[in-house]
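Dig into what follows:
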Amino acid sequence: MNNKKKIPNATMKRLPLYYRFFKNSEKSGVDRVSSREISEALDIDSATIRRDFSYFGELGRKGYGYNVKSLLKFFMEHIQGNQKRNVAIIGAGNLGSALLNYKFSNINDRMNIVAAFDNNSSIVGTTINDTTVHHSDEIEKMAEDHGIDVAILTLPAEVSQEMAERLEAAGIKGILNFTPMRLDVSDGIYVHNIDLSVELQALFFYMKHI
């Protein structure tokens, strides 16, 4: 990967879309694709696709397009990495349960949901889609025992900061934050915020200006 160029956040957000496209293309037996075909499938203009790929060197050839197997291997090795990420869902209520039932393997076969945590006695001890819900008091021990380095946070906002501090102390390196709180953590941990209310407002704005 070319580390000399700073990759824009907008490009980083599109990378999972590209990965899924090439994964589906491989499953369909497609050998190579053009930027136009990627553009039509993902509704991203061809110039943007070529610019996104340019951050990682020469991934395709003019007049030939992109080799599906080569690009899929590239995404797996240089973007996803060879390491399998062990993930925990913190909060197994409505949203947490929905995420546990989601087939994450369809979008990322290097992500392994190893546990879920909650402090609701009616949920603790249950199994959701083959994942056991443990009490929140066990987070630190299980993070160490199972090598958990990513957490998906679906807790009430008022307890999210305290939990983020516990997760950081337990060695978690990345948090996907579904709460509306902006978490205060050190530079050694990456937080990606997903605020559904903001996303909906953005959707309404774009619909209004179509």
Q: What stands out?
A: The longest strand covers residues 111-118.
